Amino acid sequence: MSESRIGLLAFQGDYEAHGKALARAGVASSRIVEVRRLPELESVDALIIPGGESTVMGMLLERFGILEVLKARIEAGMPLLATCAGLILIAKHIEGSSQTKLGVLDITVRRNAYGRQVDSFRAPVQTRIPEIGTIEGIFIRAPKIVALGPGVEPLATCKGETVMVRKGAIIAATFHPELLKDAPVHRWFASLI
Ligand code: GLN
Predict the structure, then answer these.
(1) What percent of the chain has a predicted confidence (pLDDT) above 90?
(2) Substitution candidate for ligand 1 out of 12, 15, 48, 53 with most atoms within 8 A of CB
(3) Mean pLDDT throughout 42-54?
């Protein structure tokens, strides 16, 4: 759908970088919508949940009254790209945390799982997606996916860890593809909508 609109959940975090990545991927700016309120959420056909702070984003989703609607839209099949804190927010299980979440993807995540010494690093990510191939993964206080529920497909690995997964229209990565010079993940995501 060339006229489909892609939302950026814009409470917090690096949603602007995702907007720029979509532009680099050839998505017209008229199709990119910042989402904070219900009418904006209702106006989009797909959504990106950025990195940032998952606890703050969860709290704001609740405060702005769109948590349940967003959850329902994702469950109804709206294409979604969630990165880093976004992946944490959509995970069904977050180790040792009772933070507010969407909980729509059956994975278990461990927050800040790479430890303080190496809490930010770059490393090659091997994807199974021919259009993407191997890319540089930028990991910033990244979570780890420690378990995948039934039907959750691993899409990419780095250092022996699964760092990107898919279930239906939900795509989630522990790293930051929006910070790459090119935007292969965004181009691929846009092609699926
Ligand atoms: N540690 C952050 C969280 O738990 C995620 C880090 C990020 O998005 N860069 O929300």
Answers:
(1) 96
(2) 53
(3) 98
